[in-house]
Amino acid sequence: MATPEAPGQRPESWHAALHRLQRDGLPHALATQVTSAGSTPREPGARMVITEHEVFDTLGGGTFEWQTIEAARERLSKGEAGMSLEAFSLGGRSGQCCGGSVNVLLEVFPGSATTLAIFGAGHVGTELARLAAPLPWRVLWHDSRSKAFPDWAAHQPRLECHYSPDPQAAVAALPAGSHALVLTHDHAEDRALVDALLSRGDSASLGLIGSQSKWASFRSRLTDAGHGEAALATVRCPIGTAGGGTGGDKTPYAIALAALAELLPLVGNAERAEQRGLEPAELRALFN
């Protein structure tokens, strides 16, 4: 079963989709038919890539393929990484008339475990997006100006650029547990974003660029907006300065480098180590 494509356009192959999804750190599953006995729709080695909404290539169709897709999507929805072995009797569990049997190896990749939301495509935001490229994080880059993003951003893996004129809508669209850095070109927009992020209340961390006097002003207004001391204490401001002081290199590159360094211990071990291999009992059952 292939994903519908535009007229005249060839569907994306499973290996092209796998490369793209791995590169961009997006959740997906790879299903591989590893054994077959009797009459089966496809041969061992057939593969299919599954995401929340799309399927690339096919294991032959029919009920057992839909069961494979459902199993993959259930594990993707729970963020469960690793491998499992799915056994299908094409006439038993799958209710098909082929009469054979297949074993499908299901490898689930939940995608990047860390999401960094950068609000602002100015000098510091640009350096942040560039410096984050080697990290296995998903980066969501927002700006309220439609032409603020550099051309190279369209080709950087795991980086998504979003024209976001509405701070409330931009914050509402973030995945839960995102790390957020607020550094737009406008103080009022900064304050609206921090207000929305605090109201949502599920950020993994929240940093705001600016001076201590800027934060004092913001803190007063955010208190008036109903945010308590516990919530306000979660905001780091200023960011990108050693020890929170005001000295040091204030060039955009240096601030961005320091801001990312501050994030590393906050992210910690969030990036999941891949689970490799199957349990011995599953392997014995597969080859006996």
From TrEMBL:
Return the SUPFAM superfamilies for the record.
NAD(P)-binding Rossmann-fold domains
One GO molecular function term? oxidoreductase activity, acting on the CH-OH group of donors, NAD or NADP as acceptor
Q: Which InterPro entries is this protein grouped with?
A: D-isomer_DH_CS1 (IPR029752), MoCofactor_Util/Proc (IPR052698), NAD(P)-bd_dom_sf (IPR036291), Xanthine_DH_XdhC (IPR014308), XdhC_CoxI (IPR003777), XdhC_Rossmann_dom (IPR027051)
> Gene3D superfamilies in the record, alphabetically?
NAD(P)-binding Rossmann-like Domain (3.40.50.720)
- Ranges for the XdhC Rossmann domain? 116-263
What's the short name of a Pfam family annotated to this entry? XdhC_CoxI
XdhC- CoxI domain segment(s): 22-82
Protein's UniProt name: Xanthine dehydrogenase accessory protein XdhC
Gene encoding it?
xdhC
